[in-house]
Amino acid sequence: MGLFTKDIKTMDDLFVHQLQDIYYAEQQLTKALPKMADKATDPQLKQGFLTHLEETRQHVKRLEEVFKMHGTEVKAVDCPAIDGIIEEAEETAGEVADKAVLDAALINAAQAAEHYEIVRYGSLIAWAKQLGRTDCAALLAKTLEEEKATDSKLTKLAESKVNLRAAS
Ligand SMILES: [Fe+2]
Ligand SMILES: [Fe+2]
């Protein structure tokens, strides 16, 4: 089902489509985060990636619950946007020789993924509320909070330490 095949007719269709999109994205992130943790040099950054990996596994499970609450089949659709973000992260990481600079690049890549998730969850929550699905909205909101917290932890880590080391 794509945006141009006109399979999405109602807001409910759109909600389900974007659920399938973020479900795919979260699954891809559970594969990407261990690789990012491997590449990170800063111990706090490495641990941060591993902590978010655990949270991301929960995000996948929560989405499965939302599908069930909604009464829709648990299904993923390809999300070229997250594939692009992950691909770019891997490419950039392969090009950065200095370990401290690599940490700064990894934070940047991770934040691109978090921002993508924040946008998607933000709309999903708004649509769920509009559709009268406050149960779905509440569960999705738990994930959104974790994405936002991860994003701000990454900013703090970059500004307090990683960027300084990368620039020295
Ligand atoms: Fe997530
Ligand atoms: Fe995330």
Which geometry do the CA atoms define?
A: elongated
| Average pLDDT reading | 95
The string of secondary-structure elements, in order, is HHHHH
CATH class, anyone?
Answer: Mainly Alpha
| Bound molecule types | fe (ii) ion
How many domain units? 1
| Strand residue percentage | under 5%
**How many strands, which pairing sense, and closed or not: the largest β-sheet?**
none
The low-confidence runs, each spanning 5 or more residues with pLDDT under 50, are: none
For the termini, the CA-CA separation is: 49 Å
CATH architecture: Up-down Bundle
Structure commentary:
The chain is an all-alpha fold and 168 residues long. It has a single domain, classed as Ferritin. The protein is 83% helix and 0% strand. The protein is built from 5 helices and no strands. Helix 1 runs antiparallel to helix 4 and helix 4 runs antiparallel to helix 5. The model has no long low-confidence stretch (mean pLDDT 95). Bound molecules: fe (ii) ion (2 copies). The site of one fe (ii) ion has 6 residues, from helix 2 and helix 5.
